[in-house]
Design brief:
Number of helices: 9
CATH superfamily of the largest domain: Medium-chain alcohol dehydrogenases, catalytic domain
Largest sheet: 7 strands, mixed
Shape: globular
Number of strands: 15
Oligomer: single chain
Order of helices and strands: EEEHEEEEHHEHEHEEHEHEHEHE
Distance between the termini: 15 Å
CATH architecture of the largest domain: Alpha-Beta Complex
Bound molecules: NADP nicotinamide-adenine-dinucleotide phosphate
Amino acid sequence: MKAIVFEKVKSSKTLVLREVPKPIPQDHDVLVRIHAASVNALDYRPMQMGIGMPKSRIFGADIVGIVEAVGGQVSTFKPGDMVVGDISDNGCGGFAEYVAVAEDALVLKPAAITDEFAAAVPVAAVTALQALRDKGDIKPGMNVLIYGAGGGVGTYAVQLASYFGAHVTAVCSARNTELVRSLGASEVIDYKLEDITTSNRHFDRIIAINGHHPLSAYKRILSPDGMLVVVGGSLKQILTALFFGSLLSLGNRKIRTLAAKPNVRDLEFVLELVASGKLRPVIDRHYPLEETAKAMQYISEGHAQGKVVITIGSK
Ligand SMILES: NC(=O)c1ccc[n+]([C@@H]2O[C@H](COP(=O)([O-])OP(=O)(O)OC[C@H]3O[C@@H](n4cnc5c(N)ncnc54)[C@H](OP(=O)(O)O)[C@@H]3O)[C@@H](O)[C@H]2O)c1
């Protein structure tokens, strides 16, 4: 089968299209012929940092495809089923024609969702859900700030915060303001024109997804019982939240760091919202499997508008 394999030759790191053996499903595995995948930070960060490389050297966590065969102990799926999953806990391998993956990483794809839209959902939408609902304990009527609203996680976060009944203020660049407004933000701030952290505004929840501010700057614009949930952004922002978040949480204003986990119930929840038209995957670009390296390069530059999808093979 064709796969995009990470190769390191001397100091150069590349992603190359290779012919590799088709995987054989074990007892609890499902063999999926992949139709589409999407790119996430968890795909390009290991390449940049040199740690967390998948054993197969094939990246790709978000997949959608058709079940071609199942292992002897598989009870949930049968050949011909269309499935979706975040396979990052199963060694990744989505930038390929086939993957063999544990059945408990997958869910059935609702028929109403196209392959490309389904591939754009798992990691980004589940991250946004876990940030708002689980870490953030979001409630109707809250004033929520989504900082870095234009990317994969941000476009879902704006929609989910609005779905949960919050009043949403979104921060993004001019390129994304109309989009983010159309996703449900009541107010949109262009971070190149205004620094919200120096304003007199106050928010019950701040979800920090992209960009960078010192935690103290976010904390200043939290309401008295407010909470900052750090999802991503610059490495400095993430590391400070990890190491100093609990210390800085002394008092009523809390700081929490999200480490999103693949969760099939959460995935079914967001897919159902997509199928019923309540959640809209935003897709910036499509690339064929052969051009995955270009897709990874584009995403790693940090300015994708929503998701980047890889289309694989013929359906
Ligand atoms: N904690 C977790 O478990 C978890 C899970 C998934 C992802 N993450 C992290 O979450 C972050 C977002 O992931 P993603 O997939 O959404 O990334 P992404 O799609 O690559 O984000 C791109 C977006 O970031 C925006 N952006 C760039 N610089 C910005 C700035 N200074 N201020 C505001 N917005 C800015 C860009 O908008 P403009 O073009 O308008 O600048 C673009 O729309 C990453 O850091 C990722 O590592 C964390």
